[in-house]
Amino acid sequence: MHTLVDQAQPFLKLDEIDVHYGAVQALFRINLHVEQGEVVSVLGGNASGKSTTIKTVLGLVKPTHGSVTMDGERIDGLSSPDVIERGVASVPEGRRVFPEMSVQENLLMGAYPRRKDKQGIARDLEEVFQTFPRLGERRRQAAGTLSGGEQQMLALGRAWLRRGRLICIDEPSMGLSPRYVDLVYDVLFRWKAAGQTILLVEQNARIALELADRAYVLQHGHIIIQGAAADLAADPAVQKAYLGAA
């Protein structure tokens, strides 16, 4: 007998997740979910566990307890390539471009899982070049010669070419000038308006809360605050700890 419980399940769900690095526990009973078309941000300081959370979703880290489900199916036992095949795109911390490959080759690496859709890839490639004209100008240039901000544009474009059902973004503003932070978030706001589901890890709490629908705050591997992003932005404790309020 089949039940319809999956219809009530969120698109992405982390249920009672523990993660250890050897003897050191990094996450403690994390419960987090993302609905389809929602932007959810995970905030926290250094060593809070926020990057470990996104790595757990991507299959880069294996939980020692709990489960990760996407669209009602367990993914916590899958390898990272298998998670990506299921429709997850990643913008990793530090960009992780292929430095010897050209800008265009890097972008096409993002489209590899949908490589048979040649027309769609060509269309999306031109869309990326229109969104980031600097990448279009440098499409044949080695990615390693780009500035940090340009490499972040490239990492975003590569994720967009994946056309993932979920995009996981780890610290997109790290190390960028204010100008490039604005450019990155201009793109993320456009993705949100297009209905893209996003899980965002970010230290820049102010701008992340402007973008997100909901947010979780991590401290030492524990979720200490969660709720609507607007509510967190107005919370005195969050303002004092993360938004620079006196």
Automatic annotation (TrEMBL):
Keywords: Amino-acid transport, ATP-binding, Cell membrane, Membrane, Nucleotide-binding, Transport. SUPFAM superfamilies: P-loop containing nucleoside triphosphate hydrolases. InterPro entries: AAA+_ATPase, ABC_transporter-like_ATP-bd, ABC_transporter-like_CS, BCAA_Transport_ATP-bd_LivF, P-loop_NTPase. Pfam families: ABC_tran (PF00005). Residues 12-245 form the ABC transporter domain. The keyword Repeat does not apply. It comes from the Bacteria. One of its GO terms (molecular function) is ATP binding. Belongs to the ABC transporter superfamily. This is ABC transporter ATP-binding protein. It comes from Mesopusillimonas faecipullorum.
